[in-house]
Amino acid sequence: MTAQTPIAQAAARPAGPRLNEPAPAFDALTTHGQKRLEDYRGKWLVLFSHPADFTPVCTTEFIGFAKRHDDFAAANTALLGLSIDSHYSHIAWVLNIKEKFGTEIRFPIIADLNMAVAQAYGMIQPGASDTAAVRATFIIDPEGVLRAMVYYPMNAGRSVDEIYRLLIALQTADENGCAMPENWKPGDAVIVPTPKTPEEAAARASEGYDTVDWYFSTRQL
């Protein structure tokens, strides 16, 4: 059999989730009972995977998410963890984090032993591991549409603060019909949509925005 080139191998892999398309449906056992994607309709959802229970980096991440739980909830956002561990391993780990670190994990964790959810969301990266999910994070909007996804390697923990910042940026952009500059935070100026015609571009300087050039204008909300 002829060996495939790297390009051919990549083309043969199953397609993963794609931005601005419906997120893959799931129906999975969690530490808070059975959960489906449909259960989160009307809310934003942050679905995040970790390689394994009872591991140091993952523990710090779960503590980080737990400390921001109320902030996410105030933004109409639910948290949902996942790893390819058993239901009882999740329960034991949650109890251990509370006992050893004094932090209560109030969000559910999917037990994905058959890798069904992990495969659907592209959480399994063969270059990292065939049996553990990498540190993948997915932000899903209230209509069930995948709006953002971020992947981290096994040996570097993700920033919960950045995930929260990204969530608020997406929500604010939706509400105000604008785009967000690098490292935008609430209170910062936002980017005005670029003109679509030469006439609109010529008029941009007189529209009252903070305009550097016709394609780059900002405003306060």
Automatic annotation (TrEMBL):
GO CC terms of this entry: cytosol
Enzyme Commission (EC) number: 1.11.1.24
Residues the record marks as active site: 58
Chain spans, region Disordered: 1-20
An example molecular function term from Gene Ontology annotations: thioredoxin peroxidase activity
InterPro entries, sorted: AhpC/TSA, Peroxiredoxin, Peroxiredoxin_AhpC-typ, Peroxiredoxin_C, Peroxiredoxin_TDXH, PRX_1cys, Thioredoxin-like_sf, Thioredoxin_domain
Record's subcellular location: Cytoplasm
Superkingdom of origin: Bacteria
Residues the entry annotates as binding substrate: 135
A single BP term in Gene Ontology: response to oxidative stress
Catalytic reaction list: a hydroperoxide + [thioredoxin]-dithiol = an alcohol + [thioredoxin]-disulfide + H2O
Keywords: Antioxidant, Cytoplasm, Oxidoreductase, Peroxidase, Redox-active center
Domain Thioredoxin intervals: 17-172
Further details from the record: The active site is a conserved redox-active cysteine residue, the peroxidatic cysteine (C(P)), which makes the nucleophilic attack on the peroxide substrate. The peroxide oxidizes the C(P)-SH to cysteine sulfenic acid (C(P)-SOH), which then reacts with another cysteine residue, the resolving cysteine (C(R)), to form a disulfide bridge. The disulfide is subsequently reduced by an appropriate electron donor to complete the catalytic cycle. In this 1-Cys peroxiredoxin, no C(R) is present and C(P) instead forms a disulfide with a cysteine from another protein or with a small thiol molecule.
Role summary: Thiol-specific peroxidase that catalyzes the reduction of hydrogen peroxide and organic hydroperoxides to water and alcohols, respectively. Plays a role in cell protection against oxidative stress by detoxifying peroxides.
Matching NCBIfam families: PRK13189.1
Similarity annotation: Belongs to the peroxiredoxin family. Prx6 subfamily.
Subunit structure: Homodecamer. Pentamer of dimers that assemble into a ring structure.
Name by which UniProt lists this protein: Peroxiredoxin
Organism: Meridianimarinicoccus roseus
